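Researcher: I'd like a structural prediction for the single chain below. Treat it as a standalone chain; there are no partners to consider.
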Amino acid sequence: MRDHTVVVGFGTKGRSAIRTVCATGLKKDRVVVIDPSAKVVDAATAEGYTGVVGDGTRSDVLRRAEVQRAGRIIIATQRDDTAVLVALTARQLNPEATIVAAVREEENAPLLKQSGADEVITSAGAAGRLLGLSVLSPSAGLVMEDLIQQGSGLDLVERPVTRAEAGRSPRETQDLVVSVVRGHRVLGYDDPSVGVLQLTDRVITIVRVPEPQDDPTR
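Model: Treating it as a single chain, here is the predicted structure.
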């Protein structure tokens, strides 16, 4: 494989992460799951993914999943210290891949970044913030939950700027732009430094996913 996606840990977080990615169009045969449990890997292969049984902190296991050729690596292990070791080993094998990791405790997030993760999601903190938002505003909580569930209702989508949009303000696009990705910076749609959109920019938009049409032959 080359430019595929590797998921280390196929528990609740790993399953949810890869299902979200596949909802955007990634084919299941482009996903390799690594987990120490043979039963978990069997479940992953039954869903259509490629599976590797083993410890994701070991370089030989990561090589069996061809991490050195992967485009994306998702680390969703049960323990934060395990996630750190996976990130270190994966980054040594593949300096170019995008590595996203989940941790339970916010205090471990900086360590994951130092170990090679590009983005770190604090699972307990994220869940807590969603709970707090839902208490303050149940409607806002519902909207956030809708955005998180890729492939239905409202979705957050990152895409390139079109030629028709270049030279215009983010407010003048057809989609609702919430952020502009320019180089390595993520800018708010109302950031004065954005000015007008450039062809080299990418935009993060909120779009509504069309409802599936009923089959007229039924």
